[in-house]
Amino acid sequence: MKLVVVSAGLSVPSSTRLLGDRLAAAVSGRTPAEVEVVELRDLAVEIAHNFTNGFPGRKLSAAQQAVTEADGLIVVTPVFSASYSGLFKSFFDVLEQDALAGKPVLIAATGGTARHSLVLEHALRPLFAYLHAVVVPTGVYAASEDWGAEGLDGRIERAAGELAALMSGLGSARPAQDDLAVVPFAEQLAALRPAG
């Protein structure tokens, strides 16, 4: 099987690419897959030219083919102005209209603060639903404070299991009962009160 990671990170190293790599490793650990990474920053000029002349360059054409032929996709974007990056959106704008129809997709994003975590639900999920992809139930958002913190690994594993199950044709993966512990909101608020 072929798993393609589309990363819209702009810096080197990039937390966006790091999240994509961690997700890909988790999926590959559950189902054998050849992983290919598409770095959109390397395609920015060709994407812009595709908009103006209607033809993809050689690298962009190869990236489009990889995405179209993939058995599963992991798409990761940094958050800019409370949504996905323009480069991320532009890449999916230059794909063939039905390129993602029925394709399993895991959505993920990175940002400086947890306040942007809803970008998965208000921006990415609707975009891929419009493109007729099959988006796994669990999206993964990583804020700066999430790296090395409790919880990120569990979200990565849960989402990877869901994508691996779809890629293998097993339908949606059912998490184990203790897979995701839910902390009541009252307890979360109590933990924020100053000790006194």
TrEMBL record:
EC number(s) in its UniProt entry? 1.5.1.38
Name by which UniProt lists this protein? NADPH-dependent FMN reductase
Where is the NADPH-dependent FMN reductase-like domain positioned along the sequence?
1-147
Q: What class of enzyme is it?
A: oxidoreductase
**From what organism does this protein derive?**
Streptomyces davaonensis (strain DSM 101723 / JCM 4913 / KCC S-0913 / 768)
Does the keyword field hold Flavoprotein?
yes
What UniProt keywords are attached to this protein's entry?
Flavoprotein, FMN, Oxidoreductase
- A family per Pfam: FMN_red
Give yes or no: UniProt keyword Flavoprotein.
yes
- Please list the GO terms describing molecular function: FMN reductase (NADPH) activity
Q: Which InterPro entries match?
A: CE1759_FMN_reduct, Flavoprotein-like_sf, FMN_Rdtase-like_dom, NAD(P)H-dep_FMN_reductase
